[in-house]
Amino acid sequence: MESAMTAVSGKRLWTGRVLSALPVLYLLLVGGTRVVQVQGVMDWFASLGYPARLAVPTAILELACTALYVIPQTAVLGAILLTGYLGGAVASNVRIGGDWFHILLPVLIGALVWGGLYLRDARLEALVPLRRSGR
């Protein structure tokens, strides 16, 4: 039996995979640098007003949500959790008066998360029809 994840065309599936890979690579990089506590990243984390003791736990949370997103069976749950996580990133940057780039970057990452998943998973088209059917 063919799953809904593979019920999309090959071109659409691969476009979705590429779009999904971009935020995954970014999240793995950012989360990984906090796990190993790269000094520049720790300075950035502190500039957001968070204590250093929270860097690793929040990085593990970020990496766990990313892992859920990568697994096809839990991708929707991962996308929902990443949306919340990225919303917190936007709020943190707004709170400190961050520049537009740092405020909008998590929004872009979130759009790539959902755009890639939309292209990979035909079930989302039924939930969020971006075009009318039958016309």
Q: What are the SSEs and their pairings?
A:
Blueprint: H1 10-35, H2 39-47, H3 55-70, H4 75-95, H5 100-120, H6 122-127
Explain this structure:
- The chain is mostly helical and 135 residues long.
- It has one domain (9-126).
- It is 73% helix and 0% strand.
- Helix 1 packs antiparallel against helix 3 (55-70) and helix 3 (55-70) runs antiparallel to helix 4 (75-95).
- The chain is elongated, with a radius of gyration of 17 Å.
- The two termini are 29 Å apart.
- The mean pLDDT is 91.
Structural class based on helices, strands and sheet pairing:
mainly alpha
Give average pLDDT, whole number: 91
Shape: elongated
DSSP helix count?
6
Q: What proportion of the residues is helical, as a percent range?
A: over 70%
Reported for the largest beta sheet, the result is: none
Count of folded domains: 1
**Radius of gyration computed on alpha carbons:** 17 Å
Tell me the series of helices and strands, N- to C-terminal. Answer: HHHHHH
| Total strands | 0
Bin the strand percentage.
Answer: under 5%
> Are there runs of 5+ residues with pLDDT below 50, and where?
none
Distance between the termini: 29 Å
Salient structural properties:
mainly alpha, 0% strand
Structure at a glance:
It contains six helices and no strands. The chain is mainly α and 135 residues long.
